[in-house]
Amino acid sequence: MKELRFPQGFIWGTSTAGHQIEGNNIHSDWWEFEEKGKIYDGTKSAKAVDYWNRFEEDHRLMKELSYPAFRLGIEWAKLEPEKGRYDLSALNHYRKIFDSLRDKGIKICLTMYHWVLPLWVAKAGGWENPEAVNWWTNYCEKAVKEFAQYPDIWVTLNEPLVPAAAGYLGGEFPPEKKSFKSFIGVVAALLRAHLNCYEVIHANTSSAPDGTAVKAGVAQAYQWIEPWGSKGLKGLYERFMTNLFRLGSFEAWDKAICSGRLKFPLRRSVEIPRLKGSYDYSGINYYFRFSLRFDAGKRGEGLIDRDSIPEGIEKTQMGWQIYPKGFYLVIKDNWERFKKPIYILENGIADDKDLQRPKYLLEHLAQVHRAIKDGCDLRGYFQWAFTDNFEWREGFAKKFGLIECDYKDPNLTRKPRKSAYMYSEIIRENGITEEIVKKYSPEAEEGVFGKSPALFQRL
Length: 459
Ligand code: BGC
Description:
The strands form four sheets. Strands 2-3-4-5-6-9-11-12 form an eight-stranded parallel β-barrel, surrounded by five helices. Strands 1-15 form a two-stranded antiparallel ribbon. It has helices at residues 18-21, 29-35, 51-64, 76-79, 88-103, 119-123, 132-147, 161-168, 180-204, 232-259, 324-338, 357-373, 418-429, 434-440, 445-449, and strands at residues 3-5, 11-15, 69-73, 107-113, 153-158, 216-227, 261-262, 270-271, 282-294, 304-305, 342-346, 378-384, 403-404, 415-416, 431-433. By secondary structure, the protein is α/β, with parallel strands linked by helices. Helix content is 40%, strand content 17%. The protein has one domain (3-455): TIM Barrel. Beta-D-glucopyranose is lined by residues 17, 20, 158-159, 221, 285, 346, 384, 391, 400.
């Protein structure tokens, strides 16, 4: 019988973020951004899927579906809506959320920062204000002390290079700046923010709730980035840009955290005392591959087209390539560079009708399994996302949920998609069986159980 079994104790979960599901994050920079009409589909996070009030119902559903772990976030803007003033009712409310999870035996993975700042910090210059890291650290002291007993896994920052690049270099996220200097400054600030948060967590916790060691780290966005493969000079340029993209997307950060020194080409390096080794695991968020293609028309984008899709490759509703092998390559590369336990903290697909998701999920999990078989110390997998949610500049148009939830439905009814049940079965089996593949996505058979000889072909 064909099957892929996962190691005993492997952690299965779903993932999400405060601002994207809770609703009413009114004292935040994203709230103001949305009010200014910046979201492409014209929606606003508003009450989102009202997790703030419906958490009990969601946790019950999680329990019914046998999802053993949940990655969620807390919002700085809710907890400290004004400088130095902590909102006790928000603190108590988060405690109720955590208690509800704990009572149901659902493990907690807690994200401290997922891109959203309190408006008072944003108005003072956001991460560019030299005081911002101190404000953040004070906040961490408070929040970590309050919630120390709950998380099994701590995520200090989610994908720090995304708000740095999209907010300060690409002008896509608040504060919509386009400055390389600002970008580098913010990356350095976020490295310090991570370090301080990491130290606060360790100073205030001695073990995880299950008695194992405290686990704190970053959830980093990894894409598998490749050159398109054009001939001649164009090809050379694509390869050069691939290295640059890798550097800007994750390597500069990763190297800094391994060496204690942030270095960008042609810039003076910045040393950050105690940074070196300040992580207990490596957190991977993986969604897709980039194939970088030379395009003389893309002057504003470094003569590179990132959106072209090689023939035969399917794309998602986000326009992203579906490339499960890239997942394996990212994990393998990560393991070789860090040699630390790995948690997959996000992986998923926008698919409102759930037509591609079963196959996507099965084939990506098969690559996780392959990486484990090849010796990577991979401890858990969190599927993004539990319910549909507010997808940043894309608004509510993109549907990443295992559970469908239409923000326009006054009852915000939670409707598990087919994939939600499939994920349940995988978790109960602690693996992928032939029956599961046959039942949910027979077309994934080759991608799940096949040998995949083309794995290293393009390297
Ligand atoms: C982010 C999530 C986002 C997801 C899908 C990740 O990069 O952490 O907040 O919803 O991608 O775009």
